UniProtKB/TrEMBL annotation:
Its main location: periplasm. Residues 389-403 have a biased composition (Low complexity). It comes from Sphingobium indicum (strain DSM 16413 / CCM 7287 / MTCC 6362 / UT26 / NBRC 101211 / UT26S). The lineage of its organism: Bacteria, Pseudomonadati, Pseudomonadota, Alphaproteobacteria, Sphingomonadales. This is Probable periplasmic serine endoprotease DegP-like. Residues 264-359 form the PDZ domain. It catalyses: Acts on substrates that are at least partially unfolded. The cleavage site P1 residue is normally between a pair of hydrophobic residues, such as Val-|-Val.
Length: 502
């Protein structure tokens, strides 16, 4: 880049020389930058200096010292004692992490990201947390509370005097195109200020509670936990993530919005655990295949894969196969997913839920419960790697399967097959005997021994029943059919399967 600028400068100088020697009015010429002042973009000041001067002292550097257990690669060999701890035992080494944070009270409460003050590797532990102010004063910090789900943590230091602090603003008023600034410690360069605009709001990146503010203000490693300010100097976000193939800034950074962060910070500051609403359902996004199999518009609502007995959704009458389109008056979309809406509802509150069942719109009322621990949730929900759509292509294939409508060959369940599969005795459906691996059914991992319970929300007892539903779906102009599939040792799931090309 330095070379490119040098060439540009040389070209400009050469052009100026020609202009001077060829112009008859040399004395009338003035420098291009004579008396120039940058015009302020609408809504932004000509300079951010005054605002930054007031805000910078409230932004801090956060560092941790960690102990990391490192396995000896020579353990169990004659070189184990020579290159590692005696007996090939793991070695303990020290590590450090750096991040940013901001002071929210004169007595020393500080907000940052949870990952800034957490152990960075398996087997690691955090020994100490140090906060460094802009005047280079250092303080040991105490972890008051953390919320890993939203990546927020609150620290406390004991300052010698009252500290400068900042307050949260209202991120709900933020609009795409608004100017923002970020202050933090990228690559340990303390007090670095960058500016840009809001690129998107309520941006999801795959997490359950993601509703980030996206910005093109430069955010790099070390900016984590630092504040994003609006043009009034209020904190409207906590800089948290970047999207980058190189690890450096490419103009895509994400901040946790203050509307989400502020109540969590208040709870943690009081020493309380964050509680979230819960309905007791297992859900799937309404992606293209699933939406097509239901004859619905994609990305409008979420599909209910399962309902936990005795929880709010079950008591309200919600069933597997329903599509929930709104909760408490809020539409369910990719930018505002079902989990985040329910999580924000007060525990014990009664909320109206609008759903679609067999194409019919219904409204039910559910009582919001308290979200269990992650361990309890894992006992109910399938893990991601058990999702049929994540399985590799099934190589199973034979002539019979390739002739069928979906590339699936199946036979009716019998009591003998039910015993062999180890499934409930009252299970009704057809069992797959072969799958054509070149079809969507094969690509999504359907295999011999899987049981199809329903197709197009209709019970199936024979291969003919399945083929009839495929024809019905095709006649309606849909390119996918919804199957309810049971696999041994797992709960039944709904899986959209694309029809074969005609």
């Amino acid at each position: 880049m330095r070379y490119a600028y040098a060439i540009t400068g040389a070209l400009l100088l050469g052009g100026t020389a020609i202009a001077v020697t060829s112009s008859p009015n040399v004395g009338a010429q003035v420098a291009q930058n004579e008396g120039m002042q940058a015009a302020a973009p609408a809504g932004a000041p000509a300079s951010l200096a005054d605002m930054v001067e007031k805000l910078q002292p409230a932004v801090v550097n956060i560092s941790t010292k960690q102990r990391v257990q490192v396995q000896n690669p020579f353990a169990g060999t004659p070189f184990g004692d020579l290159f590692g701890a005696p007996g090939g035992r793991p070695q303990t080494r020290q590590a450090q992490s750096l991040g940013s944070g901001f002071i929210i009270s004169a007595d020393g409460y500080i907000v940052t990201n949870n990952h800034v003050v957490s152990a960075g590797a398996e087997g690691a532990s955090v020994d100490s947390i140090t906060v460094t102010l802009t005047n280079s004063e250092e303080y040991p910090a105490r972890l008051v509370g953390r919320d890993p789900a939203t990546d927020i943590a609150v620290l406390k230091i004991e300052p010698k005097k009252a500290l400068p602090f900042v307050k949260f603003g209202d991120s709900t008023k933020a609009r795409v195109g608004d100017w923002v600034i970020a202050i933090g410690n990228p690559f340990a360069l303390s007090g670095t200020v960058t500016a840009g605009i809001i690129s998107a709001v309520h941006r999801g990146t795959g997490g359950t509670y993601d509703k980030f503010i996206q910005t093109d203000a430069s955010i790099n490693q070390g900016n984590s936990g630092g504040p994003m300010f609006d043009m009034r100097g209020n904190v409207i976000g906590i800089n948290s993530q970047i999207l980058s193939p190189s690890g450096g800034n490419v103009g895509i950074g994400f901040a946790i919005p203050s509307e989400q962060a502020a109540p969590i910070v208040d709870t943690l500051r009081k020493g309380q655990a964050v509680k979230r609403g819960y309905l007791g359902i297992q859900i799937s996004p309404l992606g293209e295949d699933l939406a097509d199999s239901l004859g619905l518009a994609k990305n409008r609502g979420e599909f209910v894969q399962g309902v936990e007995p005795g929880k709010g959704a079950d008591k309200a009458g919600i069933k597997a196969g329903d599509v929930i389109v709104s909760v408490a008056g809020q539409e369910v979309t990719p930018d505002q997913n079902l989990s985040s809406i329910v999580a924000s509802q007060p525990i014990g509150s009664r909320v109206p839920i609008v759903l679609l069942r067999n194409g019919q719109r219904q409204t039910v009322t559910a009582v919001v419960g308290e979200r269990p621990s992650e361990d309890e949730l894992n006992a109910f929900a399938q893990s991601q790697d058990e999702d049929f759509s994540q399985q590799p292509n099934n190589p199973s294939n034979n002539g019979q399967a390739s002739q069928q409508s979906l590339g699936i060959s199946a036979i009716p369940l019998t009591s003998t097959i039910i015993r062999q599969l180890g499934i409930a005795a009252d299970t009704r459906g057809i069992v797959i005997t072969a799958v054509d691996g070149s079809t969507d059914a094969g690509a999504k991992g359907l295999r011999r021994g899987d049981v199809i319970i329903t197709a197009n929300n209709r019970p199936v007892a024979t291969q003919a029943d399945l083929d009839a539903q495929v024809k019905a779906v095709s006649a309606q102009g849909r390119s996918a059919i919804l199957l309810q599939v049971l696999r041994r040792g797992q709960p039944a799931v709904f899986l959209p399967v694309r029809l074969r090309d005609k």
